[in-house]
Design a protein that fits this description.
Layout (H helix, E strand, L loop, with lengths): L5 E5 L4 H12 L3 E6 L6 H16 L2 E5 L5 H10 L4 E4 L6 H6 L1 H21 L4 E7 L22 H19 L4 E7 L1 E3 L18 H9 L6 E4 L11 E2 L1 E3 H17 L5 E6 L5 E2 H12 L5 E4 L14 H7 L7 H14 L10
Parallel strand pairs: 1-2, 1-4, 2-3, 4-5, 5-6, 6-11, 7-10, 8-13
Antiparallel strand pairs: 9-12
Length: 350
């Protein structure tokens, strides 16, 4: 790296955000986080500071702000020159998006459009965008390859799809933009220290935080949605990826933004390339934690796909990135986080 680059991380207090900020600081970047704490807490940012130590902490700034407020963004960009933006900020619960699509359009679309406006105003035209495997909908075949037809099945997925289209349109109109779209599969696990992890507010929407809350006794039973899928054990199959691998994928994408010419707007899958069913994941977590996870079989949820996993060849070839961790490490690290922090970042039940 040349001089020390400064990266803005939107939604940097969240699950994937904190793990990525930690890796950025360790790699020598300066980092500003902007987050409205809708589904995150400042305690998570304090833990990042603790993990990197006092010296690197000086390179981290936290700003409470909302991307839907152009004033919040303008203030931030007017006083700091950013070399690139990693854009995590967004709501991400499929079920909630089906029930309340307007909240998703307001938050995910308007926030991102404002971000592009202010980035353009201050001539910061490099972005790594958090997209999602939901843009593939129910793929006609698997593994999912980046050039598949895109077809989201729910409002959350559609916001990601719209935002990918917006990115492509902006880059086509203004070729100096470099935008990398990272399509995440299912991020799980936690930092090996047990100090950082996923801490959703309310009943979790994703499998792993749900399993861990049952394991620590916060919830009585794991609801498994759909047990009649045409899969090996009847439960849905997903590509789970360790959050630290995912964070490293963002570093690899940034390096490409800073070193490659004519990137345009390009998408990469970040996954392991392997599918794991819900019940296989439960079994792996039981093994890691030594706890029995009571399971209740429930009907399928609207908008859920049968089996989705990634082809990761393009990321390996063009970003030099490949997931290192398997399901056992994901469950081991998730359990360490859960057992050290049974109530997440709160000390006990609030």
């Amino acid at each position: 790296m040349m001089a020390e680059q400064t990266i803005l991380v939107t939604g940097g207090a969240g699950f994937i955000g904190t793990h990525t900020v930690l890796q950025l600081l360790k790699e020598g970047f300066r980092v500003s986080i902007i987050d409205n704490l809708d589904n995150s807490v400042t305690e998570a940012v304090d833990r990042v500071r603790e993990l990197v130590g006092p010296q690197l902490s000086q390179k981290l700034e936290f700003v409470l702000g909302d991307l839907r407020s152009k004033d919040d963004l303008d203030k931030l960009f007017s006083r700091t020159k950013f070399d690139a933006v990693i854009h995590f900020a967004g709501l991400k619960a499929v079920g909630e998006s089906v029930a309340n699509p307007r909240r998703y359009f307001d938050n995910n679309l308007i926030g991102t459009i404002n971000l592009y406006e202010i980035m353009a105003k201050y001539n910061c035209k490099k972005m790594v965008f958090s997209s999602s495997a939901t843009v593939y909908g129910q793929p006609e075949k698997i593994p999912c390859v980046e050039d598949f037809k895109l077809q989201a099945m729910n409002p959350y997925g559609r916001t990601k799809l719209f935002l990918e289209e917006i990115a492509r349109d902006i880059q086509k109109a203004e070729p100096e933009w470099k935008i990398i779209l990272l399509r995440y599969f299912n991020p799980v696990g936690a930092h090996e220290s047990g100090k950082l992890g996923e801490d959703p507010k309310g009943i979790p929407n994703n499998l792993m935080p749900y399993i861990q809350q049952v394991a620590v006794g916060r919830l009585d039973v794991l609801n498994v949605y759909g047990h009649d899928y045409p899969t090996e054990d009847g439960t849905a199959v997903r590509d789970y990826i360790h959050v630290v691998d995912l964070a490293d994928g963002h570093i690899a994408a940034l390096q490409k933004l800073f070193t490659a010419e004519n990137i345009g707007c390009v998408a990469y899958n970040l996954g392991t390339g392997r599918g794991t069913s819900v019940l296989q994941m439960v079994a792996a977590f039981e093994k890691a934690s030594g706890k029995k996870i009571p399971v209740k079989m429930c009907p399928r949820r609207p908008g859920d796909a049968t089996a989705v996993y990634a082809s990761t060849e393009k990321a390996e070839r063009e970003l030099g990135w490949k997931a290192k961790y398997g399901v056992d490490e994901m469950c081991r690290d998730q359990w360490k986080w859960a057992s050290n922090n049974p109530w997440g970042y709160q000390s006990k039940k609030a």
